[in-house]
């Protein structure tokens, strides 16, 4: 698949078939993610990968750790956690994406942007490989307890999101986009 087709056909997939995604496939996606541009060559992105066994263990951990649902809004947290619990069993794999935090605010912002570029590479590579993706920023996944479960030190790394991977049960049509001409300013 060429780049233009991958960009135009990438969709947010919310329902997956439950088929596993082989570790080798995930490794290829991560290798392509690492080609993202990075200021000062810091390459700040980090990936915690979960196969279906890891996802089941995470699911059990989330159910057994009710304090995760209380952040940031206890009234909404339980519903968000329940929705997440419904989605996890259908995934073929999951990648928690973080970036190494920099003490300098300007460098940290650059590193955050570089990690987001790595995510975009990953999403486009997955699309080209026939996989569906969903970039989740569910607060339960970014909770310090969840990050520690995934081997992340939340004092050292910032949470960018979790990428859900798998075979799409259904691919939605393209959502409407504002014409780029309405978002461009030539100077």
Produce a short descriptive summary:
The protein has 187 residues and is an alpha+beta fold. Helix content is 42%, strand content 16%. The protein is globular.
Describe, in plain words, how this protein is organized in 3D:
- There is one protein chain.
- It contains seven helices and four strands, in the order ααβααβαβααβ.
- Helices cover 42% and strands 16% of the residues.
- It is an alpha+beta fold and 187 residues long.
- It starts with a helix and ends in a 21-residue tail after the last strand.
Count of domains: 1
Given the structure, what is the number of helices?
A: 7
- The structure class reads alpha+beta
Helix-strand sequence: HHEHHEHEHHE
Q: Name the shape in a single word.
A: globular
CA gyration radius, whole angstroms: 17 Å
By CATH, the superfamily comes out as NADH Oxidase
**What is the level-2 CATH architecture name?**
3-Layer(aba) Sandwich
Distance between the termini: 34 Å
Low-confidence stretches: none
Largest sheet: 4 strands, antiparallel
Q: Please bin the fraction of helical residues.
A: 40-55%
Strand content: 15-25%
CATH topology: NADH Oxidase
Q: Which sequence of strands runs across the widest sheet?
A: 1-2-4-3
Mean pLDDT: 95
What top-tier CATH class fits best? Alpha Beta
Number of strands: 4
Assembly state: single chain
